[in-house]
Design a protein that fits this description.
The structure holds 2 protein chains of 2 kinds. Chain A has strands at residues 4-7, 10-14, 19-25, 32-38, 45-51, 56-59, 62-67, 72-77, 86-93, 101-103, 107-112. By secondary structure, chain A is mostly beta strands. By secondary structure, chain B is mainly beta. In chain B, the strands form 2 sheets. In chain B, strands 2, 4, 5, 6, 9, 10 and 11 form a 7-stranded mixed sheet that branches. In chain B, strands 1-3-8-7 form a 4-stranded antiparallel sheet, with no helix packed on it. Chain B is globular, with a radius of gyration of 14 Å. Classes of the chains: A mainly beta, B mainly beta.
Chain lengths: 113, 116
C-alpha cells in the first residue's frame, strides 16, 4: 500500500521567512495530494491540494510543487506569519474508487515574531 | 460555511466499556470517512462509506469496532470493548464523492477519547 514520508518533523522560522515542507510517496498510482493545517485541538483544515496532471499550484502565500518522476511533493509558505504556526500534514490518494488518504506524520511549524 | 458535525467532543471511559461516536457530514456529501489520529501522528483511515455502503474497512479492527451509515447520511462508530490503546482522536470527514475522483475531504472537530 501507499506510504508517505514527511520531513522535517519540526521547523522553526522567523516571521517573514519562507518555510518548506517535503513529502515523498511510494505508490506511483497516487494522483491527488492535499495539504492540511491543524492547529492545537482543532480539526485538520485543507489549505491546498494538487492533482497529478499539474506540476505546481499557488494560492497567495502558499504553493505546492509535485515531481511525479521522483514521487515527491512540497509545500512552500512565503512571508510567514505567527498565525501560520501549526502542524501541517501532507497526504496522498490513489483514487481507484477508494479515495483513501494516506497521511504523513506531520510537521510542527513555529513562526517566531 | 457548512461543517462536519461530531459528538461528543470528549469522552472518558474505562476499558472494557462500550463507546459510540456520531458524525453528521456536510449536506449532500455522499462519501463519509472515519479516521483515527494518535497524538503526534497523522490521521489513519478506519472506514469509508459511499452513501450507505462500506467502500473500505480494511484497517478497522472488526473484533471490537463497528460502523454504520444506515440511511446514507449520518454515521455512528462504536467500540466494544474499549482498550487502553484506543485512546486517540476520532475524526470524521466527508466529501462530495462525485467525479472527478478525490474530491476534497472536510474534517469535523473530532472526538477525543481517553480510556482509563
Amino acid at each position: 500500500g501507499e506510504n508517505v514520508e514527511q520531513h522535517p518533523s519540526t521547523l522553526s522560522v522567523q516571521e517573514g521567512d519562507s518555510a518548506v515542507i517535503k513529502c515523498t510517496y511510494s505508490d506511483s498510482a497516487s494522483n491527488y495530494f492535499p495539504w492540511y493545517k491543524q492547529e492545537l485541538g482543532k480539526r485538520p483544515q485543507l489549505i491546498i491540494d494538487i492533482r497529478s496532471n499539474v506540476g505546481e499550484k499557488k494560492d497567495q502565500r502558499i504553493a505546492v510543487t509535485l515531481n511525479k518522476t521522483a514521487k515527491h511533493f512540497s509545500l512552500h509558505i512565503t512571508e510567514t506569519q505567527p498565525e501560520d504556526s501549526a502542524v501541517y500534514f501532507c497526504a496522498a490518494s490513489s483514487g481507484g474508487g477508494s479515495e483513501k488518504l494516506v497521511f504523513g506524520k506531520g510537521t510542527k511549524l513555529t513562526v517566531n515574531p | 460555511e457548512a461543517e462536519v458535525a461530531q459528538s461528543p467532543r470528549y469522552k472518558i471511559t474505562e476499558k472494557s466499556q462500550a463507546v459510540a461516536f456520531w458524525c453528521d457530514p456536510i449536506s449532500g456529501h455522499a462519501t463519509l470517512y472515519w479516521y483515527r489520529q494518535i497524538l503526534g501522528q497523522g490521521p489513519e483511515l478506519l472506514v469509508q462509506f459511499q452513501d450507505e455502503s462500506v467502500v473500505d474497512d480494511s484497517q478497522l479492527p472488526k473484533d471490537r469496532f463497528s460502523a454504520e451509515r444506515l440511511k446514507g447520511v449520518d454515521s455512528t462508530l462504536k467500540i466494544q470493548p474499549a482498550e487502553l490503546g484506543d485512546s486517540a482522536m476520532y475524526l470524521c470527514a466527508s466529501s462530495l464523492g462525485t467525479e472527478p475522483a478525490n474530491q476534497p475531504q472536510h474534517f469535523g472537530d473530532g472526538t477525543r477519547l481517553s480510556i482509563l
